[in-house]
Amino acid sequence: MMQDLTKLTIKQAHEGLKNGDFTSVDLTKAYLKNIKEKDKEINAFLHVDENFALAQAEEADKKIATGNFGLLCGIPCAIKDAIMVEGQKCTAGSKMLENYVAPYNATAVKKLFDVGAVILGKTNTDEFTMGSSTENSAFGVTKNPHDITRVAGGSSGGSAAAVAANMACYTLGTDTGGSIRQPASFCGVAGLCPTYGAVSRYGLIAHASSLDQIGPFAKNAEDTRIIFEAIAGKDTMDATSVEYNIQENLESLKGLKIGVPKEYFSKGIDPEVEKIIRNVIKKAEDAGAEIIDISLPSSEFALACYYVIDPSEISANLARFDGIRYGLSEPAENLLDVYLKSRGKGLGAEVKRRIMLGTYCLSSGYYDAYYKKAQEVRELIRQDFAKAFEKVDLLFCPVSPFPAFKIGEKADDPMSMYLADIYTIPMKLAGLPGISVPVACLPVGREKLPVGLQIIGNHFQENKILSIATEIEKIV
Amino acid sequence: MISKEEVEHIAKLARLELTQTEITKMQKDMSAILDYFDLLKKAPRAKTEIKKGDLSATRTDKINSSYGMRDKLIGQAPDKKDDYIKVKTIL
Questions:
Q1: A434 has which bridge partners?
Q2: CATH code linked to domain A5-231
Q3: Which of A104, A236, A273, A385 has a CA-to-CA distance to A298 between 20 and 30 Å?
Q4: Beta carbons of A307 and B45 less than 8 Å apart
Q5: The pLDDT of residue A250
Q6: Test mutation, A104, A300, A357, chain B, max B CBs within 10 A
Q7: How far is residue A367 CA from its own chain's centroid?
Q8: Alpha-carbon distance A132 to A410, whole Å?
């Protein structure tokens, strides 16, 4: 019997292509078949373009035949639908952009094409990447492949579920407040949120520009490194991006100083999740790491700080959807009504809520109390992390207080949905990198739900994070 | 609780048309979230100056040909005439 090609990691698939065991077209067809069979139920994809994918696979096979090809050449992937792939629809999960066709490639996508990637399709997201469950997508929720009554997490839920259900070898997602790490944890895959500035956001539909970052999902940490290396670096089209070459020296747990922030184990965490994370920390200690209890005292303000800054930036960024230049346009008598009606009809409840909150926080009389205060608190949070990294190499903590929740459970209560990101938000405010790696499965009813460990590093310490994540994968 | 009038005022500033049902729900949701923001008042003042971003990271002022892209961009406009995007009368 032929092996299941969709279970291979990037490295394994690359070896197979190199040895001529199968072609990129074989790989691509295997993934397309999985999508056809499984995605009706999961809803990880918003669009799949078979001809587009197969044409890329044929090109990749030509390159592979020359013997001169990189690790990602011919490997099928999928891209979150907030990131543009030229000629393909790019909806960002919104009715506003239901028929929008991307006029150019995002830099991260262009970099993947340059190394011969095969793009299968675009994955589901909460509308404009705002949410923690993909329930805010205008095109239906993505279900968790481990239990289809539960959410896949969000906002990059489609990207996480696609990898978990073997419908893509790897995917790109975006993380503004936890949108890569939280769905990675819920779906049991590896998901890396790089340092702010490590990956160009050109061609990403903006959510909150001081926070947005593109990053990879894959079956393991080693694979996320391969993708990260391919997409990182300076881009003249994103002024925040920097020149970046990841270090190659692998770090080990022996002698590593791991900080455990006490604020991440406070009330609200599922005791079973806490037990799993504590157990991994113990195993790291047994493997030679030094465990240091630390405190990040400003953590308690992080969620409030984020929900002032994030909507404020949203209210400015989403002003571009005016019904004039592109996207949904409602017929109206005058210009103001075109704006009001197009935005009223095209935008969903959560997006409207955040635009309203942001407009409120930035409006005359409230600016100092909210936006200015939040910027000050953001500085405190930055200083907390800076102090912590004087003492430790990495931080270990949970990704989410709980495993994947039921579809509908939090959909009507925005505050309880926001709390799902309580452990992923603080480090984003400091622009730090972090990964979620699956460390255990928690039996809940008849299903087993994955739980991820979050490893946070100092700026541009992706090498340390990824080496240690790989070590952790070996010992759990 | 944030008033209905306040919600309507903010919606107008944000160029959003909201239905009556949306306004009622928005009052409730925004109030709960704004109450949560009160937590920020408890935060100590930052001791150091907030670091400003690097404002020198600008591109050189060089024209790049975007000729191929022009038609695609104009093509996305809901209402157009030849190479122009049509808007409603402003005055």
A1: A193, A456
A2: 3.90.1300.10
A3: A273
A4: no
A5: 87
A6: A357
A7: 30
A8: 10
Contacts of A352 in chain B (CB under 8 A): 16, 18, 22, 26
Q: For chain A, which residues make up each domain, given as ranges?
A: 5-231
Q: Is the ipTM of this complex over 0.90?
A: yes
Amino acid present at A250: L
Distance CA A414, CA A410 (A): 7
In a domain, B78, yes or no: no
pLDDT digits (tens, 9 = 90+) for A265-280: 987 899 999 999 999 9
* Residue A317, CA atoms < 13 Å, CB-side half-sphere: 22
Residue A468, burial from CB neighbour count under 10 angstroms (0-12, 13-18, 19+) = buried
A179 in catalytic set: yes
Instruction: Count the domains in chain B.
Output: 1
Could you read off the pLDDT of A171-197 as tens digits, one per residue? 999 999 999 999 999 999 999 999 999
Name the amino acid, one letter, at A470: T
Contact between A258 and A290 (Cβ < 8 Å): yes
Q: Could you tell me the two tokens for A190?
A: 């590896």
* pLDDT one-digit tens code per residue, A158-171: 999 999 999 999 99
Beta strand B84-85 pairing with B80-81? antiparallel
**Residue B73 included in any domain:** no
Chain B residues near residue A359 by CB distance under 8 angstroms: 10, 13-14
| Burial class of residue A14, CB neighbours in 10 A (0-12, 13-18, 19+) | buried
Q: Do A379 and B50 touch (CB under 8 A)?
A: yes
Structural domain containing residue B27: 4-42
* Backbone phi and psi for residue B85, each to the nearest 5 degrees, phi listed first: -90, 130
Is the model's pTM score more than 0.90? yes
The secondary element (H helix, E strand) that includes residue B26 is helix B20-37
In a domain, B17, yes or no: yes
Query: Would B75 be classed as within a structural domain?
Result: no
A24, A29, A38, A80: which one is catalytic?
A: A80
CATH number at residue B14: 1.10.20
CB contact under 8 A, B43 and A301: yes
CA A46 to chain centre: 17
